[in-house]
Design brief:
CATH topology: Rossmann fold
Helix content: 40-55%
Radius of gyration: 20 Å
Oligomer: single chain
Number of helices: 13
Structural class: alpha/beta
Shape: globular
Number of domains: 1
CATH superfamily: Alpha/Beta hydrolase fold, catalytic domain
CATH class: Alpha Beta
Order of helices and strands: HEEEHEHEHEHHHHHHEEEHHEH
CATH architecture: 3-Layer(aba) Sandwich
Largest sheet: 8 strands, mixed
Strand order of the largest sheet: 1-2-4-3-5-6-9-10
Length: about 350
C-alpha cells in the first residue's frame, strides 16, 4: 500500500536530475570526440598493471560509474586498482565517415599508449563492455604486445543468434547502406527506440515497480539514475555503424576470422593473453550464444568463462554485478598481476 506521507518527496525525486559519474577523476588525454579519465587512486595501489575500460559507442560511459554504490569504477578504485576509462563522446555530423579502423587502430591504440605513458607501465589490462568489448577483442587480436590481460563483459562475438537485434539487423530486414546514406550518423532517437522495443512491456511495468518502492529512497535514486542514462542517448558515426552491422550482424565475419579492419583481417586466434569472459544467462541484447563461444575461438591458454544470472545491465549495476562480477573480476585481475 502506498505511503501517502512519502508522496511529496517521491514526486520531488522524479523531477530532480540525478547525480551521475561521481567517482573523482582527471582527464589525462582528449582528441577528436573522446576523453580518457583517470580515476584518482585511494591509498597504495594493489596492482602495478593499470586497467583501461573500453565502453560501447552506443551509450554514454557512465553506466559503469552510475552513482555511489552502483559504480563498477568506484569499486575497482576502492580495491586499489589503477583505473582509466574511455569516454567516446558524441560524433558530429562531420564525423560520419569515422570507421571501426579509426576507432580501434588509431584512437584506441593512441589511448593505450597515453595510458601506458601516464601510468609508467609497460602493459595494461583491458576491460571491454558490450560493443566496447568487441572493440577491445579486435584490438587484442592486432596489438597483443600492449596487453597483460583481457576482461570482457557481455561482448557480442557470434552475431547470428536468436535475438531480436540479430533478426532486425539481417540483410533481409535492414538495408544499412540506404539507412546511412540517408542519415549520415545513426540518430540517437532511433537507437533509443530500438533498445526500448527489445522489452516493450518492461517500459510499462518498471513504473509499477517504482511506485511499489515508494518507501525505498535508494531504490528510487538508482531507478532515476539508470532511467536518465537510458534516455541520455548518443548517435553513432555512420561508417562505423555500417561496418558493425554488415560485418557483424549480416555476414558474421568475426567468428570466421574474416572480419576486415582497414587493410587487415581480424583473427581471434591471435588473442593469446589471459582472458576472462563474463556473460549473462538472460541477456536480451547480447545473448549467451553470442558471447560464450569466445573461449573456443582464442588461443589463450589461461581463459575462463563466468556465467551469471540476470540480463545485460545486470553485469554492470545489477545484483549479480555487485555480488559476483565486481569481486570476481578484481580477484582475477589481482591474480594476473604479473
Amino acid at each position: 500500500m502506498m505511503n501517502l506521507f512519502r508522496l511529496p518527496e517521491f514526486m520531488l525525486q522524479l523531477f530532480e536530475t540525478p547525480k551521475v559519474a561521481q567517482t573523482p577523476s582527471e582527464i589525462i588525454y582528449s582528441d577528436f570526440t573522446f576523453k580518457v579519465y583517470h580515476y584518482l587512486p585511494k591509498g597504495n595501489l594493489a596492482s602495478s598493471i593499470p586497467i583501461l575500460i573500453v565502453n560501447s559507442l552506443v551509450n554514454k560511459y557512465y553506466i559503469l560509474d552510475l552513482m555511489p554504490g552502483k559504480s563498477y569504477v568506484e569499486y575497482l578504485v576502492s580495491q586499489g586498482l589503477n583505473v582509466y576509462l574511455v569516454d567516446w563522446g558524441e560524433p558530429k555530423i562531420s564525423d560520419s565517415g569515422l570507421s571501426l579502423e579509426d576507432y580501434i587502430s588509431f584512437f584506441l591504440n593512441s589511448i593505450v599508449k597515453q595510458v601506458l605513458k601516464h601510468s609508467k607501465a609497460k602493459k595494461l589490462s583491458m576491460l571491454g563492455y558490450c560493443m566496447g568489448g568487441t572493440m577491445a577483442l579486435i584490438y587484442a587480436s592486432l596489438k597483443q604486445q600492449h596487453l597483460q590481460n583481457l576482461v570482457l563483459l557481455a561482448t557480442p562475438v557470434d552475431f547470428h543468434n536468436d535475438s531480436l537485434l540479430s533478426l532486425w539487423g539481417s540483410p533481409e530486414n535492414f538495408n544499412v547502406d540506404k539507412f546511412i546514406n540517408i542519415y549520415g550518423n545513426v540518430p540517437k532517437e532511433i537507437l533509443y527506440s530500438t533498445f526500448m522495443m527489445l522489452k516493450p512491456l518492461k517500459n510499462i511495468t518498471k513504473y509499477v515497480d517504482l511506485v511499489e518502492n515508494i518507501d525505498h529512497p535508494e531504490y528510487i535514486k538508482a531507478f532515476m539514475a539508470f532511467d536518465h542514462w537510458i534516455k541520455d542517448a548518443i548517435p553513432i558515426a555512420g561508417e562505423t555503424f555500417r561496418q558493425f552491422i554488415k560485418y557483424g550482424y549480416q555476414e558474421n565475419l568475426l567468428v570466421q576470422n574474416k572480419f576486415p579492419l582497414g587493410s587487415r583481417t581480424v583473427n581471434l586466434k591471435n588473442v593469446k593473453c589471459p582472458l576472462l569472459s563474463v556473460v549473462a544467462e538472460h541477456d536480451e541484447i547480447v545473448p549467451l550464444k553470442s558471447s560464450e563461444i569466445l573461449v573456443q575461438l582464442v588461443s589463450s591458454k589461461d581463459k575462463e568463462l563466468l556465467k551469471v544470472k540476470g540480463g545485460h545491465h545486470g553485469l554492470s549495476i545489477g545484483g549479480s554485478a555487485i555480488t559476483i562480477v565486481w569481486p570476481k573480476t578484481v580477484e582475477w585481475l589481482l591474480a594476473h598481476n604479473n
